[in-house]
Amino acid sequence: MAVYDLEEQETLDSLKSWWKRQGHYVAGGLMVVALAAAGTQGYRYWRNTQTVKAGEVYAQLEQAVRDNDAKKVREVAGHISESYASTGYAAMAALAAAKASFEAGDLKSAAAQLKWVVDNSKDEELRAVARLRWAGILLDEKNYDAALAQLNEKHPESFGALFADARGDVLVAQGKPGDARTAYKLALEKSPPDNAYRPVIQVKLDDLGGHP
User: Fold this and answer.
1) Rounded mean pLDDT of 102-107?
2) 20 to 30 A from 69, CA-CA: which of 32, 121, 175, 191?
3) Rounded to whole angstroms, how far apart are CA atoms 194 and 185?
4) Angle between helices 124-140 and 160-173 (to 10 degrees)
5) Contact assessment for residue 174 and residue 144, using Cβ atoms and an 8 Å cutoff
């Protein structure tokens, strides 16, 4: 029994000696882990709080949209973009502001708001919507190359028909009926059979006539 006691004492002495040499490193490592965990929890709490607050402000924007108050839409959207840029509401607010600006004839502001979505949103579908609308503005401004640049960017497959159709519109404006025809055919291929917009695409294609 004394042998076991001696071995246990030696083990304890070794542990004590090791702790004296390395204990502060272990304690420091545990502190880092604890701080990291606390930081993660704190960030999650902050992010959730930001989302809730952004949602409350976004409700004001929706009311402004219902009231057709374009000025307030832009003001509230700007506030959300500045104060809650990390939330999903920021991109939706910017899209709403862009629509209000476009309807007010302020294409410059509309384009800037759409660019913000393209540059900042983490939602690929919202970015696709912004690119389509931005390309439409660029088409109106006869900035065809810039419009095509937006439409040639990567986008979700579900937006394939819309992007192809928009490319067709730009190519028609550029005086390139052959390329436009190809784009409209692709738009039809990518459109579901029950898509209500298919007849419109077909009309555009028919208007181009036969091969040049």
Assistant:
1) 89
2) 121
3) 16
4) 10
5) yes
- Name the amino acid, one letter, at 103: E
Q: At what angle do helices 124-140 and 144-151 cross, to 10 degrees?
A: 160
Give the closest residue to 210 by CA, choosing from 179, 168, 185, 178: 178
Q: Which residue type, as a one-letter code, is found at position 24?
A: H
* Length in residues, the chain: 212
d(CA 88, CA 53): 12
Q: Which of 43, 52, 135, 141 is nearest to 88 (CA)?
A: 52
| CA–CA distance, 165 with 182 (Å, rounded to integer) | 10
Q: Tell me the three state secondary structure of residue 104.
A: coil
Q: Quote the tokens at residue 21.
A: 């040499």
What 3 state SS string does 55-99 have? Answer: HHHHHHHHHHHHCCCHHHHHHHHHHHHHHCCCCHHHHHHHHHHHH
For the stretch 75-89, pLDDT in tens is 777 777 777 777 778
Which two structure tokens, joined as six digits, stand for 62? 């929706």
3-state secondary structure of 106: coil
pLDDT above 80: residue 163: yes
Nearest to 114 by CA among 143, 152, 81: 81
- Residues 89 and 19: their CA atoms lie apart, in Å, by 52
Q: How many contiguous H segments (helices) and E segments (strands) does the chain have?
A: 9, 0
Q: 60 near 79, Cβ under 8 Å?
A: no
